[in-house]
Amino acid sequence: MIAVTGATGHLGQWVIEKLLATHNAQDLVAIVRNPAKAQTLADKGVQVREADYGNPAALASALQGVEKLLLISSSEVGQRAVQHRNIIDAAKSAGVQLIAYTSLLRADSSPLGLHVEHVATENYLAQSGVPYVLLRNGWYSENYLASVPAALEHGAFIGSAGEGKIASASREDYAEAAVKVLSLDNQAGKVYELAGDNAWTLAELTEKISALTGKTVVYNNLSEADFAAALQGAGLPEGFARLLADSDVGASKGGLFDDGHQLSRLIGRPTTTIDDSLKAVL
């Protein structure tokens, strides 16, 4: 039996969909905070189990009978380390035989502030005694493509990534990789540095937007402070705005670039290009 945390999230939904193609629905467990959001999964025969990351007892109950767990990192930055520890402890008490954790690309040396909680989780996994495999995911193409409508509206794409290369891939690509690892034997102790085959800069992305739409869009590279302020002005909470700006600066330092092609080798095909993802969005 395979369990997935955050099963109703963007990545989790893709993972469940891919698992359903190769596994019996009754052998899949979707761990969610709000079962109402997972009704479509329940209708397909997936076991939906409710558990809050802050409730160790509920987590331990939700993981009963589970052999492998995909721990998709929490979206609550600042609370991730504690939440992840709760899940790992629950998995250990439930006798889970393998945890696959979605970490960050080169987490142990990343210039992104996001790496701190990922490293803390990786270290806790190492101390837990539970066999584990690390899926160090690079950036999702969707992270930047969500800004395309605003860029078209204002004629400008803003960021702080400078000339930093971003080796992104689609969420579907990363989901396929997770499913492949969960389906293979002898994965304990492995570390996968996962990123897209083709890297690009924000200036190049902007050129692609212009070429595909016929509208002039320019890339404005801002300071970290100015980018964070602009994001706040667009309605994002201060903490999240600062996080995104920090990540862009990290990208300018090479934090989102990797040319090892481990992702495409793992899924057995080239990763989805930013061009294809952009065309889909447009």
Relevant terms:
282 residues; alpha/beta; 7-stranded parallel beta sheet; 13 helices
SSE layout and pairing:
Layout: E1 2-5, H1 10-20, E2 28-32, H2 39-43, E3 47-50, H3 56-62, E4 68-71, H4 80-94, E5 98-104, H5 115-128, E6 132-137, H6 141-145, H7 148-154, E7 156-159, H8 171-183, E8 191-194, H9 202-213, E9 218-221, H10 224-233, H11 238-252, H12 262-267, H13 274-281
Parallel strand pairs: 1-2, 1-4, 2-3, 4-5, 5-6, 6-8, 7-9
- Total count of helical runs of at least 4 residues: 13
Question: In the CATH classification, which architecture of the largest domain applies?
Answer: 3-Layer(aba) Sandwich
Percent of residues in helices: 40-55%
Based on CA atoms alone, the radius of gyration comes out at 19 Å
Backbone shape: globular
Compute the separation of the termini in Å. 39 Å
Characterize the largest beta sheet: strand count, sense, and whether it forms a barrel: 7 strands, parallel
- Poorly predicted parts: none
Average pLDDT level = 96
Structural class, judged by helices and strands?
alpha/beta
Tally of separate domains: 2
What is the assigned CATH homologous superfamily of the largest domain? NAD(P)-binding Rossmann-like Domain
> The CATH topology of the largest domain is what?
Rossmann fold
Could you tell me the strand content as a percent range? 5-15%
How many strand elements?
Answer: 9
CATH class of the largest domain: Alpha Beta
InterPro entries: NAD(P)-bd_dom_sf, NmrA-like, NmrA-type_oxidoreductase
Domain NmrA-like: 2-244
Protein name: SDR family oxidoreductase
Keywords: Oxidoreductase
